[in-house]
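FAQ: What does the model actually see?

It sees only this:
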Amino acid sequence: MLDHVLCQVPLSKFDEIVAWYSTALATIGYSKQMEFPGKAVGFGTSKGEVPFWIASKEDTNGGGFHVAFRAKDHDTVDKFHSEALKAGGTCNGKPGLREHYHPNYYGTFVLDPVGNNIEVVDHSPH
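And it is asked to produce this:
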């Protein structure tokens, strides 16, 4: 199951893009649910899930793609990381808690062979 998708945009266009998505996504019931000023904005519904993110990127040559898949447990997150590296991915964040997102956010990040950021996350308590 998909957990969330992130679209990276040049820092110089961040505010403009966030404003555009704020207007456009309002038509389908999405609004800003979380914000890290100047860095990222998460959009979702009032149900508390935040499936779509816009993040700023220093590189002005364009953005990049990030997708997060939801895992059933911490062991699955760990296994994904190991197997993705064996298959040719590059570590972009070892498995572990990311308490700055929320206390039970256990995830890992791997760059695929062309540099897209792939995450696997489990939100359940350990």
